[in-house]
Amino acid sequence: MTETSISGRYLLLSAIAALVLGVSAARAQPTAPPLILPPLRLGVLTDMSSLYADATGPGSVLAAKMAVDDFLAAPHRMNRQIEVISGDHLNKADVAANMTREWIDTVGVDVVIDAPNSSVALAARNIVQQKNRVFLISGASSSDLTGKFCSPNIVHWTYDTYALSTGTATAVLASGGKTWFTLTADYAFGHTMEGDVRRVVEKAGGVVVGGVRAPINSQDFSSFLLQAQASKAQVVALINAGGDTINSIKQSVEFGIGAGGQQVVAMVLYLSDVHSLGLRIAQGLKFTEAFYWDLNDGTRAWSRRFAPLNNDRYPTALQAGVYGATLHYLRAVDALDGVSTDGKAVVDKMKELPTDDPLFGKGTIRADGRKLHNMYLFQVKKPEESRYAWDYYTVIKTIPPEQAWRPLNEGGCDFVKS
Question: pTM for this structure?
Answer without folding.
Answer: 0.90
